[in-house]
Hints:
By secondary structure, this protein is mostly beta strands. The two termini are about 25 Å apart. Strand 22 and strand 23 form a beta hairpin. The chain contains no helices and 36 strands. The radius of gyration is 20 Å and the shape is globular. The model is unreliable at about 1-35 and about 385-400 (pLDDT under 50). It has a domain at about 1-50 and about 270-410.
Amino acid sequence: xxxxxxxxxxxxxxxxxASLSGCGGPPIPWFNQGSDGPPLAYGDTxxxxxxxxxxxxxxxxxxxxxxxxxxxxxxxxxxxxxSDTYAYPGPSVSDRGDLLVPTNDTLLFYSLDFVETAxxxxxxxxxxxxxxxxxxxxxxxxxxxxxxxxxxxxGELRWSAPTPGTPFNRLAVGRDSAIFGFSAVxxxxxxxxxxxxxxxxxGALRWSAPAxxxxxxxxxxxxxxxxxxxxxxxPEVAIPDPNDFKIVALDPDTGExxxxxxxxxxxxxxxxxxxxxxxxxxxxxxxxxxxxVFLSGxxxxxxxxxxxxxxxxxxxxxxxxxxxxxxxGEFMCRVSKSGRIQERWTVQGTQYxxxxxxxxxxxxxxxGKVIAIRDDGWGxxxxxxxxLSLERRSWSRNGASAGNTGRVVNP
Length: 411
């Protein structure tokens, strides 16, 4: 089966397609402006983004750039640059195709052609999480004022509720529209503790619980449990032991720990297979090697590990057939649900490409394509020629669902 690799400039994604296994070699890259993170999508429209901050004695420039790209044809659809705007910690896409850009103390709504349609002040706090969207279209975003704001799909602030501290990374939304996350709590100067929390759909606090030192966005397991990769170091420990990270599962109703399993090394956000298997990518800084750990979602028992990657690994994504895609060293790897590496595809575009490039962030699986961003900002697209379809909702920054499962779900 032929595989195709597209190396495209992030500004416009103008590119050519060429086969890696037959007719011709990979294309020569075009001009590249760089992309700051994993792409987003709505229907056949792919979004890329970057945010920059330049500072000197004479100016302080904040800037966000956004581009769209038709995934069916490698060509630019639209692009825009917004001054005095810094999209931290990254945009999302709503169920109806609005581009949601958190910036400063405001949530901005843009149409697919970058026309601003709404501007929602978040009551004084700077945005601290990427927007999350529930099944009914309500948008949730955290702020450094120690709040979570709920915004309607029409751009109206519904409520703003306090959290145990400043929420970070990305919130997860349960099937009952409960909101889950973790927050930083400064006990005293130099000591920061972390709390996991759950809010009711109306913003009332359901529970909070100690979270150790969480590393990445939480995910929701098959039964709704909150999954965190964390280290139980106390607040007074500035640098946690890198050999003492674990994954914990918290009861969604009470916050009680259901199980915990040692991972050893730090890991990315968990992804959840269709059968409930929890998959975590971890990396060993000493050996420069990555490991994919497969665990039972019910008990946390380690089922198996995949260790024969050539170097560090990136965040994975799970396709509708159970295959797992992730950056592995200088390759994109396809791994079976049993943990066996099936294929490796190079991320080098041409013979003139400097070696050593790698994929950053989780890939996107859309319209039979595997789409990823390389460390230098170039976009990579492999035509996989299979039905890797998107779920009904848009593909958000950290996964294909409001629960951050990282999994493709057939409509």
